[in-house]
Amino acid sequence: MIELTYFGHSTFLMGVNGKKILFDPFISPNSLAKEVVIDEIRPDYLLVSHGHEDHVADVQRIAENCGAMLISNFEIVSWFQEKGLRQVHPMNHGGSAVFDFGRVKYVNAIHSSTMPDGSSGGNPGGFVVDSDAGTFYYAGDTALTYDMKLIADSFAIDFAVLPIGDNFTMDIHDAIKAADFVGTETIVAMHYDTFPYIVIDKEAVQQIALNAGKKLIMLQIGERITL
């Protein structure tokens, strides 16, 4: 089983085999997450999908607070190394690495990626985390792509963390197709409601998912569940 705690937007803390993995930390600039005490979040690992501000804003602060290892693509890791981070592990598309919680594979995403200062964030990606506690796909920001079908060829995905906010990423209809592609019935929603461009009708998307036979989980900020 994997424990999930949601901190808003695309930020999730996952408990996997006794280790804490934080994805795409965007907390301090997010007015919806103002009740979150960021300095109490002390992960062992930080996994970053791409370089946009709304996915990297709190990487340095959290990493310096607790010594978490940053795992991301080569360009993002290099950018943070220049800012003084030393606990890092660079990856790139198609590659995988084994850590003490399980195996991580860096997979394709269709999006863009620039760092907050305008420098290159490399190519955006997502992650498959494969462990004996469970296996899940964290898509990052992405459009629907047939590459997702390759994930189902190699992994038995228990749940997928997918963007549903439309405009910058997939909407709920494409997220349902993405869940089909990766072979799961369970979608954990992300990247919605944070900004005016991605505000959604939550009741409507729940009904769309229900009609498609999918379990759509939309967590409250600070909520914790186990899957």
Could you explain how this protein is built, in words?
The chain has 227 residues and is an alpha/beta fold. It has one domain: Metallo-beta-lactamase, Chain A. It is 22% helix and 29% strand. The protein contains 6 helices and 14 strands. The chain has helices spanning 53-56, 59-66, 74-82, 148-154, 172-182, 202-211; strands at residues 3-6, 12-16, 19-23, 45-47, 69-73, 88-91, 96-99, 102-108, 125-131, 134-138, 159-163, 186-190, 215-217, 224-226. Strands 6-5-4-3-2-1-14 form a 7-stranded mixed β-sheet, with helices on one face. β5, α3 and β6 (88-91) form a beta-alpha-beta unit. α4 (148-154) runs parallel beside α5. The longest helix has 11 residues, at 172-182. The protein is globular and about 50 Å long. The termini are close together.
Structural class: alpha/beta
Q: Please tell me the overall pLDDT.
A: 98
CATH topology (fold) name: Metallo-beta-lactamase, Chain A
Helix percentage: 10-25%
Ranges where pLDDT stays below 50 over 5 or more residues in a row are none
| CATH class placement | Alpha Beta
Provide the gyration radius in Å.
16 Å
